[in-house]
Write a structure and sequence with these properties.
45% of the residues lie in helices and 12% in strands. By secondary structure, the protein is α/β, with parallel strands linked by helices.
């Protein structure tokens, strides 16, 4: 029996803004969150991959969450990304986030070490036991080299506060396999922008998006059309959007999404090393795609 949560719709994975000296820019981060809320997003996720979780200290994470909570209040669910090297640190991060008043956690497998099935299940069980918050498990084997399979989610089904799966394997066949194996035990969210429409059509009740940070209005248009069953309109918007949605599935997704967002008036493209802003041909091609999409935005 799962804990009951009402997560549904588009949840941006929000970038963390930095000053030019790479210190946290909390007002700019808050401003971006405000703009997303004004554009009708259904939830907010801080400190995921796009939030540069692994480049931010524990104290800074708490500061980001407090600042975000000030803006979000109780209007939509606020989730915190948990991406740590050890299970113990993940538990501490989860507890710190809970003390700030977030509404849930988006938990990744342990970073760097590629755990096997037994270890992965234990990681999620241990974190779930350390907090009373509902948990979304983030499955992204292409990036994190750990696949949380339907069989593993069956093993975790007795953990009441594991309520949701963010599925970002990139292979939409997995979504139907999850529903067939697990029924309605978990909410299933689309986790990769360039297979989002397929994922929604296969029954996902939410979408964790990156490019929504730059194009919240059009992102909402796509979601609303799909929810209304107007697949012709959804497909039109999706085809317009796709050159940018591909940014979400490349190693430099943070730089691409920050660049797109800054070009659309949200924040800057400053990232913390080892990430560096895009330069040269790579940057020019990204800007060409962003500007072409911005000039041909759906009405």
């Amino acid at each position: 029996m799962a804990m009951n949560v009402d997560w549904r719709g588009v949840f941006p994975a929000v970038p963390t803004q930095f000053h030019e000296d790479f210190s946290l820019d909390l007002p700019a981060t808050q401003k971006h969150v405000e703009a997303l809320l004004e554009n009708g997003v259904h939830g907010i996720i801080m400190l995921g991959t796009i939030g540069e979780n692994c480049s931010i200290s524990p104290e800074e994470k708490v500061a980001v969450l407090k600042a975000t909570k000030e803006v979000v209040g109780d209007t939509v669910p606020l989730l915190n990304g948990v991406a740590e090297f050890t299970t113990q640190t993940a538990c501490e991060t989860a507890q710190a986030a809970e003390s700030v008043g977030v509404d849930g956690l988006m938990v990744m497998p342990g970073m760097v070490y590629h755990s096997d099935a037994r270890e992965t299940v234990q990681h999620f069980r241990t974190i779930a036991a350390a907090t009373s918050l509902p948990i979304m498990c983030y499955n992204n084997p292409p990036v994190y080299r750990v696949d949380i399979t339907p069989a593993m989610f069956q093993e975790l089904a007795d953990v009441e506060n594991i309520v949701c799966i963010k599925e970002a394997a990139g292979d939409v066949r997995r979504i139907t396999d999850l529903f067939n194996a697990l029924g309605d035990r978990y909410l299933i969210f689309a986790g990769l922008d360039d297979v989002a429409l397929e994922s929604i059509m296969l029954g996902c009740s939410g979408w964790i998006s990156g490019l929504v940070d730059a194009f919240p209005r059009e992102n909402g248009l796509l979601w609303d059309a799909a929810m209304a069953g107007d697949y012709q309109r959804a497909l039109e918007v999706y085809r317009w959007y796709m050159p940018m949605l591909h940014f979400d599935s490349v190693p430099k997704l943070v730089q691409y999404i920050k660049l797109a967002s800054s070009e659309m008036g949200y924040g800057t493209e400053t990232v913390r090393a080892p990430r560096l802003p895009l330069v040269g041909d790579e940057r020019e091609e990204a800007l060409r795609i962003i500007h072409t999409c911005a000039a041909t935005r759906p009405a």
